[in-house]
Design a protein that fits this description.
The chain is mostly helical. The protein is built from 3 helices and no strands.
């Protein structure tokens, strides 16, 4: 004969073990979530500290440049020349911008009205017949060679490493 009390005790024991296992799994998941959040916060804090260091290094470099730009020494000579070339290039581009701005101020007779252009294009689009044949899709271009899209700086010589 089957002992129902024994069977009942075994079933309750199995359910208790399952409940304990589920509780442990939930606690482990919660701990993982907490540690994952803490890791993310620490990584953000580290990135902030690295940015602080980067800014300090940048300021150190500016101060060194300002105090030694008239007489650079050693490997700094090439770096100082690069800074001078970049500053000269910036000055030329800023002068060009000012020239372009000044030339635009002198000739106020040129006016462009974009509303008219848009209205003309909309009128032309409405006037086109609806039965026009759709255009065939363009074939995709396949590059035959790899082209370098980076542009070297003028008069740039690579740094010795």
């Amino acid at each position: 004969m089957i002992n129902f009390n024994s069977l009942k005790d075994k079933a309750l024991g199995a359910m208790g073990q399952a409940a304990d296992y589920t509780k442990d799994a939930a606690n482990k998941a919660a701990e993982k979530a907490k540690s994952g959040t803490r890791i993310a916060k620490l990584k953000m804090d580290i990135a902030g500290e690295r940015e602080t260091i980067k800014k300090a290094y940048n300021e150190i470099g500016k101060l060194y440049y300002d105090t030694h730009k008239d007489a650079p020494e050693g490997f700094f000579i090439q770096l100082f020349e690069e800074v001078a070339m970049a500053q000269e290039s910036i000055s030329k581009m800023e002068a060009e911008i000012e020239t372009l701005k000044d030339s635009g101020e002198e000739d106020d007779s040129i006016e462009v009205e974009f509303e008219e252009v848009v209205a003309e294009e909309e009128t032309a689009a409405c006037a086109e017949p609806e039965a026009a044949e759709p255009e065939a899709p363009a074939e995709p271009e396949t590059p035959t060679t790899h082209q370098n899209t980076t542009r070297p700086r003028p008069n740039h010589t690579p740094r010795a490493g």
